[in-house]
């Protein structure tokens, strides 16, 4: 009897492990596929996901996102750019304000830029941006700019927040480590919800 119980326990465990591996594998494929897709407008706003800045100077990652958002704006894909991101430890100014200054230097009028400065993760940035977009009176259709590996997660978060989102990633390369990290985040977020995931990470 103990042997029979052990055998069935091992079978159940093996089956669950196989399902987990399959789920993670499929999710990895979806993250990779999303990283290779590119969308354009029309949209009511372009949302630029935050990234590091150094004393007001955008990091290469943030600069790449801002430059791409400027290209989309200049092409007429959306009339407004929302720059996002609060302060990280040791920052003197916010990522959002750094993005604002950079876009102004490129010639984007102040009236076409909205600033989100409270978010410290993707969920918080998109949650606050969704309020900004709706308060501006536009539709909930947005175009999100981020790095390729991040595309599926931000689209999923936006959907959870009630936004109709497309993603236009930068041309940055994605490493296997970045894709796998996003796979874990998406796999967990789909189960527990991205709001809860943001609160525990």
TrEMBL record:
Please give the start and end residues of each transmembrane region.
Answer: 12-33
Does the entry feature the keyword Metal-binding, yes or no? no
Q: Does the keyword Protease apply?
A: no
Q: Which UniProt keywords apply?
A: Membrane, Transmembrane, Transmembrane helix
Annotated ranges, domain DUF218: 45-182
The UniProt entry's GO CC annotations, sorted and at most eight, read: plasma membrane
Q: Which Gene3D superfamilies match?
A: HUPs
> Cross-referenced PANTHER family, in alphabetical order?
DUF218 DOMAIN-CONTAINING PROTEIN (PTHR30336:SF20), INNER MEMBRANE PROTEIN, PROBABLE PERMEASE (PTHR30336)
Protein name per the record: Unannotated protein
Q: Which organism is it from?
A: freshwater metagenome
